[in-house]
Amino acid sequence: MPSVLGVLERRERVALARAEELRAELERLQAAVAEADEAARRAVIAREETVVALAEAAEEAVVVGVPVNLPAAGVAGPRVEVPLWCEGVGIEVLPPECARIVALVQEDAAGGGDGVRARAMREHLGWSASDAREQAARFRAKRLVERGWLTEGRPGLFRPRAA
Questions:
Q1: Same structural domain for residues 2 and 74?
Q2: How many other C-beta atoms lie within 10 A of the C-beta of residue 76?
Q3: Nearest 5°: CA angle at 8, between 7 and 12?
Q4: pLDDT digit string (tens) for 149-158?
Q5: What is the pLDDT of residue 70?
């Protein structure tokens, strides 16, 4: 008959071996998650850069007088001219769509919101539900950030400019 201590020691070794196998599997899964997160981050950057490049190419084509052939309806068009923000200037100097975006962001902040995403801007502007139109709204919001009208605290979350 086997000893009780021998049986318990064998059970302990089996349990420790299983725990080690699970730790190795956990490390493998954590590495796979980190890799997938990085791939997703790169894809977002590539998409955003493509939208900006298309918009800039369209602007250059308009400036040179070359007709602009955009790949599909609803894709970002020519660059929207947004004046720099300065003290005492209201949103009435902005292009209409940009003024509506700024007003939406200000309204959200006044209501205690955390910020406005491009999807909400697209919906507020009454644009069709498409990735291209959402990217166009995001591009306009980023232009408003560049020109001092809005801020972007977290990526893709737009708030009114700091007082």
A1: yes
A2: 25
A3: 120
A4: 999 988 889 9
A5: 44
Distances (CA, A) of 62 to 59, 67, 68, 69: 5, 7, 7, 10
pTM given for the model: 0.52
Query: Tokens standing for 160?
Result: 């009114």
Please say if the pLDDT value at position 101 is more than 90.
Answer: yes
Note every long-range contact of 51-60, with CB atoms under 8 Å and residues 24 or more positions apart, other chains counting.
Answer: 51/76, 51/135, 51/136, 51/138, 51/139, 52/139, 55/79, 55/139
Query: 75: domain range?
Result: 1-79
Tell me the residue type at 32: A
Give tens-digit pLDDT for 112-160: 888 999 999 999 999 888 888 889 899 999 999 998 999 998 888 999 9
Does some domain include residue 86? no
Local structure of residue 151 (DSSP, 8 states): E
End-to-end CA distance of the chain: 82
